[in-house]
Amino acid sequence: MAESMDPAEVEFLAEEETVTIIPNFSLDKVYLIGGDLGPFDPGLPVRVPLWLAINLKQRQKCRIQAPEWMSVDRLEQLREEERAAQTFTPMPSPHYMELSKLLLNVAADDVPRADEIRALLRDLWDTRTAKLRLSADGFVSQQASHAQVGLPRQQACLLSMQSAVLSSCSFSLLLNRLIEQPVYRLHARSV
Questions:
Q1: What is the reported pTM?
Q2: Is the per-residue pLDDT at 169 higher than 50?
Q3: What family is reported (predicted)?
Q4: pLDDT of amino acid 182
Q5: List of domains in the chain
Q6: Angle at alpha carbon of residue 81, lines to 75 and 85, rounded to 5°
Q7: Strand 62-65 versus strand 18-23 pairing type
Q8: Of 7, 33, 110, 176, most Cβ neighbours within 10 A?
Q9: d(CA 72, CA 116)
């Protein structure tokens, strides 16, 4: 069985996703092991890993452009799709929650309608958490051999993050029971 990842590890992986920044400085191309970055010219958009965008923003060296999916219209659409589906729907990014949390914490002034986006992301999170809770409850009450949540493979880390949220509703007890009795297993369907 694969080890689960804690939220800090998932956040670390999310920081490798690229975002667009608008630098306010000049710098030739930078050659790194993970790939070349730049050149950086004031006012010209450039794609960089999130970790660099955050660092530059904290030093007031750039503005960060929110990803296309991080708009009120797109998030409202995603929320409605999630509410209408019985299983999880694909998200725009495997690390959409970590990426949005980091961007809204560091660069909320660069994100139009940041407060509305926070609320929509919370609604989306709550909807997905409720689906996970219902699946786990059905699993326990039916003594089924698996629970189906339609979890996309790249979002498997959602289970480790949401298990902390759901511990108050005995989700951790369910996981402990599953570990003790290998006959039962959670099944995450690939989407």
A1: 0.74
A2: no
A3: Belongs to the GINS2/PSF2 family.
A4: 39
A5: 7-180 (3.40.5.50)
A6: 145
A7: antiparallel
A8: 110
A9: 7
pLDDT at 63: 98
Strand partners, 76: none
Identify the band that residue 5 occupies on the pLDDT scale cut at 50, 70 and 90: confident
Report which residue type is found at 112: P
- The closest alpha carbon to 139, from 94, 169, 168, 164, belongs to 169
C-alpha–C-alpha distance, residues 6 and 148, integer Å: 22
Output the pLDDT for position 53.
98
Give the type of residue at 105. Answer: N
Amino acid occupying residue 51: W
Tokens of 33: 């092991």
Place of tokens 């919370």: 122
- 124-161 burial: b if 16+ Cβ within 10 Å, else e: bbebbbebbbebbeebbeeeeeebebbbbeebebbbeb
Q: What letter does residue 67 receive in the DSSP assignment?
A: P
Residue 40 DSSP SS3: strand
Mean pLDDT to the nearest integer, 36-45: 97
**For residues 20 and 173, what is the distance between their CA atoms, to the nearest angstrom?**
42
In the predicted model, what is the mean pLDDT of the chain? 81
Token code pair at residue 84: 């209408």
